[in-house]
């Protein structure tokens, strides 16, 4: 896929990921795009491991894979943020 395809798929997947998992997350359009691109990488890697195929071009399967990866990244970010927000005990 070309860079423009990654940007478009990233923006769409990031926006869909934030729509599926609404909440207070940092960033605007660029962070959304980065979440979607990273989601495509993560989703493609996991899809390849379990035999579903990877990110192969600008198509519906790629968008679903990238969106699934974006949702996973948002979930992990929120879990990390929730656990890291507590003050250290004993100080």
How does the major sheet shape up? none
Structural class call reads mainly alpha
Outline the low-pLDDT stretches: none
Distance between the termini: 50 Å
Oligomer: single chain
Gyration radius, rounded: 15 Å
Mean pLDDT: 75
Number of strands: 0
Strand content: under 5%
Care to describe what's here?
It is a single chain. This protein has helices at residues 3-20, 29-49, 60-84. It is an all-alpha fold and 91 residues long. The chain has one domain (3-83). The radius of gyration is 15 Å and the shape is globular. The relative contact order is 0.20.
A few lines on this structure:
The protein is an all-alpha fold and 91 residues long. The chain is built from 3 helices and no strands.
What keywords describe this structure?
globular, mainly alpha
Task: Give the secondary structure arrangement, pairings included.
Layout: H1 3-20, H2 29-49, H3 60-84
Helix pairs in contact: 1-2, 1-3, 2-3
């Amino acid at each position: 896929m070309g860079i423009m395809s990654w940007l478009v798929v990233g923006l769409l997947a990031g926006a869909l990921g934030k729509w599926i998992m609404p909440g207070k997350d940092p960033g605007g359009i660029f962070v959304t795009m980065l979440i979607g691109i990273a989601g495509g990488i993560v989703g493609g890697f996991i899809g390849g491991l379990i035999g579903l195929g990877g990110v192969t071009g600008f198509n519906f399967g790629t968008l679903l894979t990238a969106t699934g990866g974006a949702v996973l990244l948002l979930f992990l970010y929120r879990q990390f943020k929730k656990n890291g927000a507590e003050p250290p005990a004993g100080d």
